Records
---
Amino acid sequence: MASTKSNKIDFLLLGRVLRLAKPYKGLFIASAILAVAIAPLATAPPYLVKMMVDDYIFKYDIPGLSKMAFIYAAVLIVQVIVRYFFIYSTNLLGQSVIRDLRVRVFKHLISLKLTFFDRTPIGTSITRTINDIEAINTVFSQGIITIIADLLTIFAVIGVMFYTSWKLTLICLTTLPFLIIAGYIFKEKVKAAYQIVRTQISKMNAFLQERITGMRIVQIFNAEKEEMEKFKKINRDYTQANLDSILYYAVFFPVVDIISALALGLMVWWGARGVISADVTIGALVVFPIYLNMLFRPIRMLADKFNTLQMGLVAAERVFDVIDKRDLIKNTGSIKPEKLQGNIAFENVSFAYKAKDYVLKNLSFEVNSGETLAIVGSTGSGKSTIINILNRFYDIQKGIIKIDGKDIQEYELFAYRNRLAIVLQDVFLFSGSVLENITLRDSKISREEVIKAAKMIGAHHFITKLPGGYDYQVMERGATLSLGQRQLISFVRALVFDPDILILDEATSSIDPETESVIQFAIETLIEKRTSIIIAHRLSTIRHANNIMVLSKGEIQEFGTHEELLKIEDGHYRNLYEMQFLEAAESNE
Ligand SMILES: Nc1ncnc2c1ncn2[C@@H]1O[C@H](COP(=O)(O)OP(=O)(O)OP(=O)(O)O)[C@@H](O)[C@H]1O
Ligand SMILES: [Mg+2]
């Protein structure tokens, strides 16, 4: 990445970040105007003090002095108000920009191809949408505009100092080179330290996220002690990185104080002699310490602000990286079906997740409208992959998949997916109520429809027994429900959407005979009157299918009805049937 390699501020990148503020042009200009207003307002009070000393106090003009005091107070109040609006407007600007940006990144993420998520750790995507975007805020709230305001203040202060007494100013400025050198060293050191801190933060986040998700495994295998040790080490490194960065502040700030004290000493030494020789007014001598303070404070902060700006830009680069990803699902089709007949045809379909590593090889088969196809095959044979490509999670490399005689790519993606319902192998539930998990917050689906569907599936009974019934709060990933219950909820979810094509990936795990019959009933309800593809692991489901497809290493080995396949001497299905299902049937009796 360009900006991490060089120390320079990447202006192209900065420009792109600033363009994010385009919808808030008014706010941006207002902030900039306030930034410009701050400089003269800041330099005015000390100058008023100088005037009061030289022109009023020494001339015993008491009414004039009262007037000046009033002006002084007025300027201070205006300054406070301007500062308030400045801080508020820059932060409002930053927050508005990152609010929009978060929406943009999330919108982009949800339309990315699944291959992106196969390759990118969850933690990274989350960091991009939260931490990195937060850092971009600082480009606006503490970065560019405040840096301009600070620079303007510095120039204004130096200007007024020259105007007040150019000799004293020159004396003071002799310390400036030291300050610049110290600032530069500090900036570089802190930048390096910050980068280490950031790496440590992401390490700690990744570690915690994974361990908390996998807490069961940690506890099952008594791995607490080892994990604790690993955590302690990460924690130590993180603390050290923070301490290192603080060290530079602890050194830099006192150094700046020493330099400013030096400037002050020089000034007093020179200035006192100047007053005696009437070269310098007493008023000037009184206000110069104030000016010096006003000069050194922003200079001290400036080094830090440049770092913040640079950090923000590094984060921006990472976020833009995500936005620039063109791995979007192709959605060029235009047909928006109200209803599908449900004729499915695979014609010489080949598919690979990774280049040339074909998981499905030259598949050709048909499912007629209203019929059910059961797919059986050993683990890893490509059964779930068929779902992935039928739903267009991934696009195929060779062949064509047709629904009702048309290539599925000719359909508008969302209209197409709307007519399909898929029950995945591992059911995913979101945190929220049971009802919300079934409707997925589609407001068109009423509570009554959900209850009706649940009754048809046979899930109503167990749902009403949950505390709160349909409003029972499901925890993340449905951790508080049993596997069978989660499965039933996902069946209701599929039925309520009333799809034309139903695809069901049965959970592999075995279930008790009682739940088995509930689930069997549910599946029969689901597949009634619609085209269905079921990846089946249980004989009862398979026997109900019109056709059975035996898949092996991505190829079709056998295709036919239950009876036909049983007739094949030494056939795959027959072996499977004898080995697996007969045994299961016997043990169930
Ligand atoms: N997202 C993915 N990226 C890369 N390879 C994948 C991906 N998903 C699955 N595979 C690979 O594709 C092959 C087929 O996987 P698939 O999930 O279709 O098997 P399956 O028949 O559903 O098995 P199971 O019965 O265990 O569910 C496997 O070798 C697997 O490693
Ligand atoms: Mg599978």
---
Amino acid sequence: MEARTLDGKVAIVTGAGRGIGRGMALALAREGAKVVVASRTRSTVDAVADEIRAEGGEAIGVACDVGQRDQVYACVQQAVDTYGTVHIMISNAQGFGTEAAPRASTVFMAVEDTDEDEWEYTFRTGATASLWFMKAVFPHMKAQKYGKIINFASSSGQIGFEGNTCYNATKEAIRAISRTAAREWGQHGINVNIINPALETRAFDAWKTARPDFVEALKEKIPMRRLGDPERDAGPLAVFLSGPGSDYITGSTFMLEGGMHTLP
Ligand SMILES: NC(=O)c1ccc[n+]([C@@H]2O[C@H](COP(=O)([O-])OP(=O)(O)OC[C@H]3O[C@@H](n4cnc5c(N)ncnc54)[C@H](OP(=O)(O)O)[C@@H]3O)[C@@H](O)[C@H]2O)c1
């Protein structure tokens, strides 16, 4: 068999039970990575791991709520116990709503009405979870002088999209943490980059229900005139940012949006 870009590499992908996470997990496995498929629902992570194995790849499903510190560290430990180390860490999961009443996506809430439980939960499952994973994988990446960390943010945060205070804040915090780690950890052979996507997924469908006019108008605003697809569009970027092609790129935000925001 021909050598593949990620042969011998071990990846953790959170939020991989569906959507963008699933698309990236499949793509990494097709390039030879052993993948830890992580999200809360046992049946979905097992189904994606089965899908990977059915294609001849290697994967395990791990039920992990990224909002729980002990589960984050346990997930990384399980990757190390199973495959020896972690080379690629993709923090893609993001919680919405509150712990008691989680939602599939954001709903409009004016800044002055910001709910503090929602602030805490959105932040914990976003920025704090990304930081926990980064701290947990760092010793392994530093020791092997190889690490590719990909964190997920959103152009909503960059532009301060109305009604999204909690989400915008956690996503911009993720970018700030990522840039800081990029500067500190480059010397150890660790790259830290960010993806800002606009892709058709369940989170997007939930948003479509909440704001149908806005989402329809959005397609017209995207220069490529379509919403991206998790496998076709996120898969190749995740492989690139996980492999040797991106060795000299760190601290950067990749706009996977079909040109929707061409920010300077
Ligand atoms: N789709 C877009 O256009 C878009 C735009 C901007 C940013 N993003 C970002 O891209 C990432 C992926 O979004 P998506 O559209 O693929 O979402 P999605 O289709 O809703 O999938 C989310 C995944 O995350 C998991 N998840 C949710 N909360 C979790 C938690 N607390 N712990 C562990 N896993 C959890 C879900 O599985 P379980 O429910 O089983 O846990 C699911 O597998 C998110 O960070 C999102 O904010 C997406």
